Amino acid sequence: MAAKKATAKNALALSKEQFKDSIVKHLRSTLGTDEARANNQAWWKATCSAVNELVFDRLTETSKANAENDSRAVHYLSLEFLMGRLTVNNLHNVGVFDAARDALTDLGKDINDICDEEPDMALGNGGLGRLAACFIDSLATLNYPAVGYGIHYEHGLFRQEIQGGRQIERPDSWREYGNPWEICRPESIQEVPLYGYVETVFGEDGKMRKVWHAGRQIKGVPWDIPVVGYEAKTVNVLRLWESKAADFFDWDVFNAGGYVDSQAEKSQAEAVSKVLYPNDESEQGKELRLIQQYFFCACSLKDIIRRYKRNHTDFSQFSKQAVIQLNDTHPTVAIPELMRILIDEEGLVWDDAWKICSETFAYTNHTLLPEALEKWAVYLFEKVLPRHLEIIYEINRRFLEDEVEAKWPGNDEMKRHLSIIEEGETRMVRMAFLCVVTCFKTNGVAAMHSELVKQDLFPEFCELWPERFENVTNGVTPRRWLLACNEELASMYTDLVGDQWPRDLTLLSKANEFADDAKFQKKFMDIKHTKKVQLAKVIKDLCDVEVDPNAIFDIQIKRLHEYKRQHLNVLHILALYRRLLENPNYEMNKRVFIFGAKAAPGYKLAKDIIYAINKIADKVNNDERIQGKLKVVFLPNYRVTLAEKLFPAADVSEQISTAGYEASGTGNMKFALNGALTLGTLDGANVEIAEEVGDENVFIFGLNCDEVKALKAAGYNPWDYYYGNPELKAVLDWLETDYFTPGAPGELASIKQSLLEGGDPYLCLADFASYSEAHIAVDKMYSDKKGWARKAIINSASVGKFNSDRSIEDYVDRIWHLEKVMPN
Predict the structure, then answer these.
(1) Catalytic one among 564, 565, 615, 775?
(2) Which of 159, 175, 366, 561 is catalytic?
(3) 558 an active-site residue?
(4) Residues 458 and 547 reside in one and the same domain
(5) With contact defined as beta carbons under 8 Å apart, do 234 and 823 qualify?
(6) Which helix (H) or strand (E) holds 63?
(7) Is 572 among the catalytic positions?
(8) Within a domain: 518
(9) 529 catalytically annotated
(10) Is residue 535 located within the same domain as residue 618?
(11) Is residue 24 part of a domain?
(12) Is 670 a catalytic residue?
């Protein structure tokens, strides 16, 4: 009997024949082609259109129900939504995956080939965007009223190519040929003011008010992407704003021969939504980035207020109907923008406007790195958003005089320390401080991170308002990160526990009862081997490297940053390579180290690390002396679609950030859910994963958070570790030679320099020995096939806590206080 897959019950299911008829209808009537002439992209768009017949109907019903109920809703503001592909996800959530697969088969098409036509939605960079995508999936699945707001990037971050081992950035034109999942909503276009000056005027009643005379206007055009909840009862909206010029074409200039100049305003306006995170090393880049943040916040707030005014004539109920969640500091400018709207446009007095603001906004902190807490130069605010700077000054004045003075009377140093305006050679607006001062809740994203937010990042604010600080541990959606990306394991779990586990991931804990069962172990590990075989083919296709699926697949995939310590991983790979060269009989299981990461275009050391990985891979992978025991792979253009192939195939999950630096991580959860064992520090959500699966089923190494602080306080000297560990010294010295870069000695030396002359800020050398010992333990355990299988099963079955549905319920309970709305 064939295994049953979990699929959405009571969804808007179609039979195979109905779905087939719908696809053919859309091929002909929507796309103007037929079965004989259509290419795979046309087949994909026709399949999407067939699904959309169901999705858009539910979208309308959801919007209608929320409007009729006048529901309190969460508005999730995020500069990133890393959605990946939606076809397979939506087919599962609507409950028509099997019908679509069988219909396409009858039509002579393979559903995998058709779905591969879909480009990833390039709407994010890393974990922040993947988390936001999981959260809006869960909000729809749980039937909570919600709207996601972001930017409709034309190019997203960038498409990464590797040339000569180096990262090359190329435009990621993800919607070059249109996107069948999105709908333009011109009826909801917004106008956004910029620049200009502020005038103080007095009315006939003698009251003073401020008038912002903008120097420029740009237009925000909304594009809606339906967010389909599991079982498709609720379909919420992700609304993305595209920037356009308000008056985009100058006929007089064009007719006078200024063909390029006539397009100037159009080009400047469209640049705002052109690319995710414009490089802010230049003044123009900084200005564009601030405009980008304000643009999406202003559009979103106008849209929220428009919806509110459908049922309300004043703002007395606004904070009861709307909660606005700021996903990191990027949307912080929404705070002074709402104050501006309420005071300057709606006529509220300051105290009433401030009460609404402080009851409406909540803030999620995602980083403990001081350099990642956004600051904007005062002069830039003054130029681009002059009225907002006045409002921020007034918020700060009242905060310092009313709150700080009351708590620490006469303490000017404390006022300076807590001021939203940072004094210095260039005065800066501290956006995180503005969030904490305004928002009714500030939350971290893992238990350890939330404690560090209170203790290290905002201790004085926590002393002022301890009740404002919360923890909500992150989660991932099992619909995408198991059901859609690991069909074989999903089917196995459905056979074991039924088809409701995509809603309730804790149901998988039943598999723990079978962790020692030989048949269950074999089935589980056979699936793992299948996914490794599939990944090996991807590696061959993308990198032309042959890897053995029987080897340990050790994977580190995340944004390239020093604190995530990809270079620590590199040092250990070099150590293994040296051991094999010195002793060809060195006992170890075959190892394949797999990386996927993008480096920010202006981050030189991160790009140097990518170059080092690729040059080391060239040498190691072609060195016959080591008999294929060690392979290194860097997969280009890491994105959600590639991640969906990597997580199910991993044996070892590398989560090796310096303790106290990673807020949470969500890759660690996806790896564990798919049966990989965590090799990591006690950092972020690693701590909670170890608690759930058991310390004996993970490989923990390195200094803990307190030890990191103590070592730094005592005066960390990386040279001590360099001279104290001959193997470590040898591999670091290797980087200065031309062994990996023939004819170009020192091309990899910047890594050594950062770790020695640069002071090794993330303690790679201090953790190297412990990391190396943890890898020896991994190798030893992998030789025990039954023992490894047991640990892999326990990891997969024990991470039910890390369902993003649970995260959302925590947000609802602790912060948002929403009620479910069930559409008809």
Answers:
(1) 564
(2) 366
(3) yes
(4) no
(5) yes
(6) helix 40-69
(7) no
(8) yes
(9) no
(10) yes
(11) no
(12) yes
Q: What is the domain-level CATH number for residue 263? A: 3.40.50.2000
The per-residue DSSP string of 166-208 comes to EEEEE---TTTT--TT-EE-GGG-EEEEES-EEEEEE-TTS-E
405 and 484 assigned to the same domain: no
Q: Which domain holds residue 275?
A: 70-84+120-474+812-816
> What letter represents residue 102's amino acid?
D
**What pLDDT, on the 0 to 100 scale, is given for residue 3?**
44
Task: Give me the catalytic one of 332, 666, 681, 741.
Answer: 666
370 and 447: one domain?
Answer: yes
| 666 assigned to active site | yes
383 classed as catalytic: no
pLDDT of residue 259: 53
The verdict on 651 and 571 lying in the same domain is yes
Do both 460 and 531 map to the same domain?
no
Report helix, strand or coil for 249: coil
d(CA 491, CA 335): 47
Give the helix/strand (H/E) hosting 652.
Answer: strand 652-655
Residue 16 located in a structural domain: no
Residue 651 near residue 548 (C-beta atoms within 8 A): no
Domain check: are 150 and 251 in the same one? yes
User: What's the predicted TM-score (pTM) here?
Assistant: 0.95
The rounded distance, in Å, linking the Cα atoms of 104 and 102 is 5
Domain count, the chain: 2
Our CA angle for 245, 246, 247, nearest 5°, is 90
The answer to whether position 60 is within a domain reads no
pLDDT confidence of residue 1: 34
In three-state secondary structure terms, 731 is helix
What tokens were used for 496?
Answer: 């074991």
Q: Structure tokens of 198?
A: 């502020």
Q: b/e string for 774-806 if b means 16 or more Cβ within 10 A?
A: bbeebeebbeeeeebbbbbbbbbbbbbbbbbbb
- Closest alpha carbon to 543 in 166, 158, 162, 118: 162
**Judgement on whether residues 255 and 274 belong to the same structural domain of the protein:** yes
- Please give the pLDDT value at position 2: 42
Residues 6+ apart with CB under 8 A from 328: 78, 79, 128, 364, 365, 366, 367
- Identify the residue whose tokens are 């091929």: 27
Q: Which residues of the chain have pLDDT under 70?
A: 1-13, 247-263
Give the C-alpha separation, 544 to 541, whole Å: 6
- 7's CB contacts (< 8 A; 6+ apart) are 92, 95, 97, 98, 499
Q: How long a stretch of residues is the chain? A: 824
